[in-house]
Amino acid sequence: MTEATPTMPTAYEAVIGLEVHAELETRSKMFCGCAVVDSTTAPPNTVVCPVCLGMPGVLPVINRRAVEFGIRVGLALNCQIAAANVFARKSYFYPDLPKGYQISQYEMPIAVNGWLEIDLPDGATKRIRIRRAHLEEDTGKLVHVGDSSLIDYNRSGVPLLEIVSEPDIRSADEAEAYARKLRAILQYLDVNSGDMSKGVLRVEPNISVRPVGSDEFRTRTEVKNLNSIRSLQRASAYEIERQAKVWESGGQVAQATLGWDEVRGQTVTQRTKESADDYRYFPEPDLPPLFITPEWIEDVRRTMPELPDARRDRLIGLGLSRYDASVIVAEKAVADYFEKALAAGAEPKKAANWVINELFARMNKAGLPGERIADVRVTPGALAGLIRLVDEGRANHSAAKQILDAMYAEDGAPDEWLSRLGLEQTQDSGLISEAVERVLAASAAEVARYCAGEEKILKFLLGQVMREGKGKFPAAAVQELLTATLRERCG
Q1: Is beta strand 256-261 parallel, antiparallel or unpaired with respect to 221-223?
Q2: CA dist., res. 374 & res. 339, Å (int)
């Protein structure tokens, strides 16, 4: 009898398409004159009217600025801008949708057939295709209190742009890279703040898995309303692993809408997935077709700001590595801060090192995301001044870090903290010479090893002299004097 060969587990890959819902930062709502307000701070139900409350007999009017923002995003994502746009009624019945339907675009969206390029961990790039971007109105917000739910309609009717990718994403990390890049583009365009904690940007991955090498599309699930990129990455990774285990065990993945439980770190079923037929789309009878002329598109194109990739390439031209430039431009607020530091006189590569390695470390420790860099007490001018202290030899790198700590905690100028902390480097060669002599006198064995050709000992001796100076000795001056003294000793 021959022994049966065990079946090898199948290797699976993810097939992910992302739906991103971005509230547009217009002054008024999509189809009425109500102001757009921060739904996390404004008193509930104070910015509503018969139109956004869905009262009988009211007529919607399209927000021109929202259309221009949609065109702007479409151009940034290399899309074709549709000449003819039709709004439709998307019927579904939830308490946060007072009309019983949502006005959205279905068969004729504002932008189609675009792409976005992401950076991969190995340094390569990948193009993710954009299927469509369409305009619609946001829903109200449910607030759950005990066993009851309250409804705030301030958000109902806020302009929303839904951006739908093709299923070109193959891992949770690629999904994260795509979401970060798209978020940055929306920020640079000034159409969305990118503040996911406030729900103004929400991400929904459609996820399935298939055997590596296959081109089939298997049953997918959709994870709804993820409000952080970290949650997107974690939820996608979990769902990929869960589905792979289902298929590997001989089961079938059920098409469903899922939620993400951040505490338990797992997806949970909310409802079986609806199809387009369930929404009963039909053209919105109260809105005529919207026609976008080539002249209008060109008018919008002329207002386009510099986008992240162009800004990254410009910073590379200033001497930054591609990695450093990519980190700097990933958050518009960080890039703006960095360029203000350059305008204040900071050298680009040094400024990038201080922002990425030092300022980010202090912000991370304080739980402050990069988008909040404008809130730190260290102004771009102060950072440039700190770098200047080091360049002028008035403070060494260790002292500069102490000064940065002080400025981060208590504000103030770098020159003032240099004096207050007593960290200014001395230019007195006599004091440095005395310290060198003391260290060499106490390190006879190390001096002998150096004279015997063990040059790495110089680093140890340099550290001892710097310690004697308590941060006040210029490293270059110490090394020069120490090397000269050692050569004399060695003959």
Answers
A1: parallel
A2: 12
pLDDT tens-digit readout, 343-367: 999 999 999 999 999 999 999 999 9
Is 133 exposed, middle or buried, given 0-12, 13-18 or 19+ CB atoms closer than 10 A? buried
Tokens of 464: 């001892």
Q: What is the pLDDT of residue 3?
A: 40
The C-alpha torsion from 86 through 132 and 371 to 364, rounded to 10°, is 140
CA distance 470 to 26: 56
Q: Which of 377, 352, 381, 347 is CA-nearest to residue 363?
A: 377
User: Model-level pTM?
Assistant: 0.86
Extract the tokens encoding 68.
Answer: 């221009």
Alpha-helical segments (H) within 120-190: 172-188
Q: Taking a C-beta distance cutoff of 8 angstroms, is the pair 372, 386 a contact?
A: no
Taking alpha carbons only, the member of 31, 98, 36, 84 closest to residue 61 is 31
Residues of the chain scoring pLDDT < 70: 1-10, 272-277, 471, 491
Are 376 and 338 contacting, i.e. CB atoms less than 8 angstroms apart?
no
In the chain, CATH 1.10.10 sits at 429-490
Could you tell me which residues come within 8 angstroms of residue 488 by beta carbon, excluding any fewer than 6 positions away? none
pLDDT at 218: 94
For the chain, helix, strand, coil in percent to 5 are 40, 20, 40
CATH of span 429-490: 1.10.10
User: b or e along 71-97 (b: 16 or more beta carbons within 10 Å of the residue's beta carbon)?
Assistant: bbbbbbbebebbeebbbbbbeeeeeeb
SS3 10: coil
- Amino acid (1-letter code) at residue 296: W
Instruction: Tell the residue number behind the tokens 């015997």, with chain if given.
Output: 452
